[in-house]
Design goal:
The chain is built from 21 helices and 23 strands. By secondary structure, it is of the alpha+beta class. Strands 1, 2, 3, 7, 13, 14 and 15 form a seven-stranded mixed β-sheet that branches. A six-stranded mixed β-sheet has the order 18-19-17-16-22-23. The model has no long low-confidence stretch (mean pLDDT 95). Bound molecules: D-xylulose.
Length: 549
């Protein structure tokens, strides 16, 4: 019998999931969460983020993430599990955030004192040198690096060239632009930096007591990694900051054994010398934690923002520059596209039909698929995909017949947008795992199934990133032990959707939506000032599907 620990350091909390494996039997035996604001109020974060005068700046204290790790591992001791059986630990962390360790950090990592808690040891040392060369870490919500994005893009030869090289065009929250800003605005701090870690590799380093590697899953969120070669791109490094190659950890596969849990954790928390497996980003870990270990499966998360992601065997890059390609922890790739107008837009229409989700469902059932030719681009807030800076919904085709039709317009508008903006992944989707708040609504899932022409299953995601990390720890331990297991076997029975939740596509309606897709694309082009009035195209589709729409 063996235990595997998966941790997820997200924006607001640290979650632990313990997986018990006994032969072929596997089950989750512990789930535990610590909220940063509540458990560690002395860092004065709000939802895990430090207050800032500049609305574009978003930072968090790296010492808080370390202290949370110390607390959660001490709390594990209080569980009734016999952790002598703990074989391996891996983790997941919010992507893109960076941690700056000062000169001498490597030796301090290896000599942590088990008699004292961790956090005070990460302050200035006996010789008054700081452990961090920057006390506040920029995180994924930061949008303050537009000038750096532009400079990097220019130096690398344009947005398309950067996307082809690293998997994404330059994004403000990505680590390369953040490092460039730091080197530019605090050259002294940059010079004092021995190692720049991601949140994921920083926490793995604390556990192993030595600088850990960065895995390709999280490395691809930096605008610095050559996506295909899975190593740092000299061109991107050069475009970012001087001497950067010497400050970054090496990139190594996601199943890398970084070393045993360091003496600090063994002595302080009574843990065994378990393997520390490379950590990864939360999205790559969720890919495993939602069971998407083969091409053809996609996850759609319907939350504050809507996200679609799935595994890709080949690194195809989005030519429109809105999607991301990350490394997948399986050794493949993953595509991810994010839409800012998710639940807010749905709630707006729900309020129009009486304010309840039952009314929302009822409206979907009462209105015809295709919505009588009403097409909505639901850009109530600035949109990420496609890039829309000036918000405002754009209506096309025949006027909406009222609040119920508005409900259908928002759901169809969102599903058609997700289908349109995931074609670039080049994957024929046959099944979708739907997660997030709105995925409990079977009528929304029916539209999803009809638009994608794929079976849709509800997935109770819970702690999918932490579960993915625990499964990765198990996978890596099996590999290191020479046994090895197929990914399909690793996720079986754990990272699976609710079997009875299957929603099947209706072929006639899939044909209708297939015809509406280019029409919606024409509406989008028109709204962005790049195409003619789509009205004739909408009428033509209505005519063709007169019985359905
Ligand atoms: C992905 C991204 C977020 C963070 C959240 O590109 O920025 O999903 O990883 O933790």
């Amino acid at each position: 019998m063996a235990f595997y620990l998966g941790l997820d350091s997200s924006t607001q909390s640290l979650t632990a999931v313990v997986l018990q494996v006994d032969g072929d039997a596997r089950r989750v035996v512990l789930e535990h969460r610590l909220e940063f604001d509540e458990a560690l109020p002395h860092y004065a974060t709000r939802r895990g983020v430090l207050l800032s005068d500049d609305p574009l700046v978003a930072e968090a204290p790296p010492a808080m993430w370390a202290e949370a790790l110390d607390l959660v591992l001490s709390e594990l001791k209080d569980s009734r599990l016999d952790l002598a059986h703990l074989r391996a630990i891996s983790g997941s962390a919010q992507q893109h955030g960076s941690v700056y360790l000062a000169r001498g950090a490597g030796s301090r990592l290896s000599s942590l004192d088990p008699v004292r808690p961790l956090a005070p040891q990460l302050g200035p040392g006996r010789d008054a040198t700081a452990f961090f060369s920057r006390a506040r870490s920029p995180i994924w919500m930061d949008a303050s690096t537009t000038a750096d994005c532009e400079a990097i893009t220019r130096a690398v030869g344009g947005a398309q060239a950067l996307a082809e090289l690293t998997g994404s065009r330059a994004f403000e929250r990505f680590t390369g632009p953040q490092i460039r800003k730091f080197a530019r605005t605090d050259p002294g701090g940059y010079a004092r930096t021995e190692r720049i870690h991601l949140v994921s590799s920083f926490l793995a380093s604390l556990l192993a007591g030595r600088h850990a590697v960065i895995d390709p899953g999280d490395g691809s969120g930096m605008n610095l990694m050559d996506l295909r070669a899975r190593r740092w791109s000299p061109v991107a490094l050069e475009a970012t900051a001087p001497g950067l190659a010497d400050k970054l950890p090496p990139i190594a596969e996601s199943w890398t054994d970084v070393g045993p849990l360091s003496p600090y954790w063994q002595r302080r928390h009574g843990l065994p010398a378990a393997r520390v497996i490379a950590w990864s980003g939360d999205n790559p870990c969720s890919l495993v934690g939602t069971g998407l270990v083969r091409e053809g499966l996609a996850a759609i998360s319907l939350g504050t923002s809507d996200t679609i992601f799935g595994l890709m065997r080949e690194p195809r890059v989005d030519p429109t520059g809105t999607g991301h390609v990350f490394g997948a922890p399986t050794g493949h790739y993953m595509g991810l596209t994010c839409f800012a107008n998710g639940s807010l837009a749905r709630e707006r229409m729900r309020d129009g039909v009486g304010g309840g989700w039952t009314d929302f469902s009822e409206a979907l059932r009462r209105t015809p698929p295709g919505n009588g030719g009403t097409i909505l681009l639901p850009w109530y807030v600035p949109e990420i995909t496609p890039h829309v800076a000036t918000p405002g919904p754009r209506w096309y085709g025949r006027p909406s017949s009222g609040p119920a039709a508005d409900v259908r317009a928002v759901v169809e508008g969102q599903m058609l947008a997700m289908a349109a903006h995931s074609f670039w992944m080049g994957v024929q989707v046959t099944a979708i795992h739907a997660t997030g708040g709105a995925s409990v609504n079977a009528d929304i899932l029916q539209v999803m199934a009809d638009v994608f022409g794929a079976d849709v299953f509800r997935f109770e995601a819970g702690n999918s990133a932490a579960l993915g990390a625990a499964l990765r720890a198990w996978h890596a331990d099996e590999l290191a032990g020479g046994t090895g297991r197929e990914w399909e076997d690793i996720v079986a029975g754990l990272a699976e959707p609710v079997a009875s939740s299957r929603v099947r596509p209706r072929p006639g309606l899939t044909a209708l939506y297939a015809d509406l897709l280019p029409v919606r694309a024409a509406c989008e082009a028109h709204a962005l000032g790049r195409g003619p009035d789509p009205a004739p195209a909408i009428e033509a589709v209505l005519h063709r599907h007169a019985g359905n729409a």
